[in-house]
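Hi all, posting the design record for the shared folder.

TITLE: backbone redesign
STEP: 1 of 1
STRUCTURE INPUT:
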């Protein structure tokens, strides 16, 4: 995820901003930049690559090198500016390039901004601002904010930011500064995090505390929908109408390591808790019309291909394979296209029957998994069109495909995939709905309903995270010493069971098996003993009653049934050892919500076993070898 840092005060801003950005490196980024104001000038310097590339550019230009970075870099490097903003970018809209790196600025170079998140209505705003004479220089959605603020500027940056904020849709956080108010930063938050760091005669603002932790531990949280005005002497919080808001200060006692994890004890736990935001980012502007899906974005597959496709083949490994399994149900149900699921390492050596008319989808969060890439190449060589679903811009998979659909989960550090999984599933839902639109296989009203349900997903994830902690911790307490867990599911509940079992296996080293519940009596039932924990995905679906029968069979063998339920299955609560209720959503979308307690269960058990959940033994985050 991108990183923001801003400083206004009395010390040289450039060093403080660079130091702050370094502390945000753990979030992952592909380019970086800073803007500084001094002597009635505002200048930006941006560079692709890591922060040393940015530093080199600043240094080289300060020394008078003619490497083409422009006068701005010279000025930034040389001025003793005490106001500035900085950014590390993880590309989502637009390629990794210097033009797309932040800060962005308006046509007259008066207003500079750094932005995290997504502006959903940027196309509409961009058209209007362009018609009014704005000259856009990047492919990003973020740039629109600089032009919009400039268009509202009438001598007071805070007022211009409030007016712009009222027009922006999406979820984002940004910090703006204007050359005409050199001692002011104005920030705004809608969903994406922002926090203020308070100092004596100086103030900081950042997307996360580590950016200024070495300077101050006195913080003020920026809440959703708020505008913040920072000046060296103090900080004002405002509503979007300009009314003042009182905000307490807090003392942060985290060490640097905890701060990097946003206060969570591990990256995996942090990433589990980021899932609502990352799903929101992944669907954001793609459902902005409210009634349909728009996947027409740079690098996307030519949609004409969707109409002519006869069959879809999904190739992937591990968790990404499970995401594909969910996608199969959705695409077959909504778009009425046959979907075949293939484990990439098997497919590549199978002499598969594939060619023209086939759309092969490779799913890989890293975009570097050797087997997935090889399977995609095999299919492409035989004439199939290949679509990549990945989280990493510039990864190999993006070069080995005819089009890409990006998830927007930000960098995932925990080896066990969590937020990238739910974003993959969200991306496949979008694809399934778009296919259905193009092929006319679902009535527009049904598509509109499903788009509405997609929009509810982030809230349902939040609700789940807020409610399942206690029952999950209790199950972990009761079962962390057990040596075997069985997971059962049907229909879309089956990939959820598979993913839950994989998570537990990966990080707790407990043997797990996951089965289609209907298959249980064909073998795995022999494994059931007196205390065997059996995790059942029993959320509402057309096969719920069948699932309940399977659970009764499990209970009859004395095993412990742990059921993930929704309102429709609430009546089974007294027939199972433990029920973990999650909010109900359209049953096809339920996996994204149902998997959350299973991720947490794996986490809580691994923690009780004293294991390193972020780096489980023998596993690598990116598997670039066979
Ligand atoms: C998931 O928790 C695992 N780390 C693993 O199964 C992973 O999903 C698999 O290696 C595929 O990785 P990819 O998505 O980067 O291709």
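Okay, here is what came back for every position:
SEQUENCE:
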């Amino acid at each position: 995820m991108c990183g923001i840092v801003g400083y206004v005060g009395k010390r040289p801003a450039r060093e403080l901003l660079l130091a702050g950005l370094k502390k945000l490196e753990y979030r992952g980024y592909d380019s970086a930049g800073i803007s500084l104001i001094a002597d009635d000038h505002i200048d930006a310097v941006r560079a692709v690559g890591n922060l040393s590339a940015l530093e080199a550019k600043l240094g080289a230009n300060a020394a008078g090198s003619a490497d083409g970075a422009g006068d701005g870099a010279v000025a930034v490097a040389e001025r003793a500016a005490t106001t500035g903003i900085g950014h590390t970018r993880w590309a989502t809209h637009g390629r990794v390039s210097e033009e797309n790196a932040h800060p962005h600025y308006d046509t007259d170079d008066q207003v500079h901004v750094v932005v995290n998140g997504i502006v959903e209505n940027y196309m509409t705003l961009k058209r209007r601002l362009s018609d009014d004479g704005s000259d856009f220089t990047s492919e990003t959605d973020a740039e629109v904010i600089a032009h919009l603020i400039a268009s509202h500027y009438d001598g007071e940056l805070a007022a211009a930011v409030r007016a712009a904020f009222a027009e922006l849709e999406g979820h984002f956080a940004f910090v703006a500064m204007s050359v005409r108010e050199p001692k002011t930063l104005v920030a705004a938050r809608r969903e994406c995090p922002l926090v203020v760091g308070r100092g004596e005669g100086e103030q900081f603002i950042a997307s996360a505390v580590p950016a200024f932790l070495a300077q101050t531990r006195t913080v003020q949280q920026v809440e959703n929908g708020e505008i913040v005005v920072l000046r060296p002497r103090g900080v004002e919080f405002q509503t979007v109408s300009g009314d003042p808001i009182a905000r307490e200060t807090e003392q942060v006692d985290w060490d640097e390591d905890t701060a990097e994890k946003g206060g969570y004890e591990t990256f995996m736990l942090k990433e589990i808790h980021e899932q609502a935001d990352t799903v929101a980012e992944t669907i954001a502007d793609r459902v902005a019309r409210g009634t349909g899906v728009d996947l027409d974005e740079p690098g996307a597959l030519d949609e004409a291909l969707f109409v002519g496709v006869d069959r879809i083949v999904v190739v992937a490994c591990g968790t990404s394979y499970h995401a594909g399994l969910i996608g199969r149900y959705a695409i077959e149900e909504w778009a009425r296209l046959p979907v075949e699921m293939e484990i990439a390492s098997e497919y590549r050596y199978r002499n598969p029957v594939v060619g023209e008319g086939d759309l092969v989808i490779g799913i890989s969060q890293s975009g570097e998994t050797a087997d997935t890439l090889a399977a995609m190449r095999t299919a492409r060589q035989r004439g199939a069109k290949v679509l990549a679903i990945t989280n990493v811009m510039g990864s190999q998979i993006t070069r080995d495909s005819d089009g890409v659909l990006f998830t927007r989960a930000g960098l995932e550090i925990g080896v066990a995939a969590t937020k990238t999984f739910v974003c993959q599933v969200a991306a496949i839902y979008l694809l399934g709905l778009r296919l259905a639109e193009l092929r006319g296989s679902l009535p527009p009203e049904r598509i509109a309903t499903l788009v509405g349900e997609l929009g509810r997903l982030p809230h349902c994830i939040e609700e789940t995270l807020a409610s399942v902690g206690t029952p999950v911790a209790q199950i972990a307490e009761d079962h962390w010493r057990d040596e075997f867990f069985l997971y059962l599911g049907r229909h879309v509940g089956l990939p959820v069971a598979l993913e839950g079992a994989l998570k537990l296996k990966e990080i707790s080293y407990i043997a797990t098996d996951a089965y289609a519940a209907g298959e249980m009596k064909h073998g795995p039932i022999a494994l059931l003993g007196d205390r065997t924990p059996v995790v059942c995905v029993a959320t509402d679906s057309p096969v719920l009653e069948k699932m309940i029968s399977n659970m009764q069979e499990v209970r009859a063998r004395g095993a412990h049934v742990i059921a993930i339920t929704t309102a429709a299955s609430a009546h089974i609560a007294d027939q199972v050892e433990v029920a973990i209720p999650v909010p109900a959503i359209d049953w096809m979308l339920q996996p994204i919500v149902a998997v959350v307690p299973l991720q947490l269960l794996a986490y809580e058990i691994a923690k009780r076993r004293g294991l390193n959940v972020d780096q489980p033994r023998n596993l690598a985050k990116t598997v670039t070898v066979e």
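COMMENT: Residues 317-320, 364-366, 369, 372, 415-417, 506, 622-623 surround 2-deoxy-2-amino glucitol-6-phosphate (CB under 6 Å).
Let me know if anyone wants the other runs.
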